[in-house]
Amino acid sequence: MSTWRTSPSSEGILWVSWLLRLPQLCSTCVAFSLVANMGTLRRAIGNWSMSFWCVCFAMTFIIALVECCRHPSSFPFFWYNISVTYACYAALICLSASIIYSITYVQFMPYGPNWDRAIAATAFSCIASVLYVIEVAGMRAWYELKEIFFYVHTVRALLKVLETFVAGVIFAFLSNTSLYLHQPALEWCVAVYSICFILAAVVLLLGLAEWEYMLPGPFSIFQLVLSLLSVLLYISALVLWPLYQFSEGFGGQPQRPSDGDCRDELTYDMCAWDQRLAVAVLTAVNLLVYVADLGYWAGQVSVGTEDQPRDS
After folding, report:
1. DSSP 238
2. pLDDT tens sequence across 218-227
3. How far apart are CA 161 and CA 164, in angstroms?
4. Which residue from 130, 163, 242, 302 could staple onto 200, CB 3.0 to 4.6 Å apart?
5. Which of 259, 240, 260 is nearest to 251 (CA)?
6. Nearest CA to 107 among 270, 259, 257?
7. Are 54 and 32 in contact (CB under 8 A)?
């Protein structure tokens, strides 16, 4: 059984709330407000980035409010695991929003007040991602949780966070259903992303609640089978998606068009060809993460050990 009886001091909660959560709230709020102030000129990419910053602001505000209003001893053990796991996702969300917003929108903007706002929003988004990374790295020390097992601080948990996050970004690009509904092979790729995301999310939730060791069989064998299945599925998607999207023989488009929404200037939507390319690249990235996950669990099975919860 894990040790989760140790509770942080009230001073530790307040220090984290004032010295870390407040800058997180300010940076995400400023990034959101700057882009919102651009009006209709923010385009679809701006709306997409705004939604990410708004979610991070809202979740951080809720966590800070709950921690400031309740006594530390009243928190169940998994609250801190959920909090640090959220911070990990928020860091990735703000970083990805900064990168995508800058390379798909800001670089095409003419110099002027709106360009300044977009640059400032990108900078504050990067600051927010750094602040969330600091929270993930310093959670145990600042909350004085020396004896609580933090699932997200393990390699297997970080791999699951990456798997689910990359899949989430893929789904964001796949919101344009015209990319795949015309071809059964591409629909299979979307099914692969969905199946693997659900499997990784279930394992992550089991780990956060520390229910994984309640399974009837060895969890390492179970996870090894799931990782192998996910790798095989992603290999099929990595072959089929580029083949049917970029090969002329399969109805794809090998070259990026220079007209429509793919002009090298501001357009209302992100170029569909760029979305196809982004999904292909992210598929390869997630396959590498799943291969690393498979290697990790193969090593655990081969030596007959795995990360066990800490005993009380």
Report:
1. H
2. 778 888 999 9
3. 5
4. 163
5. 240
6. 270
7. yes
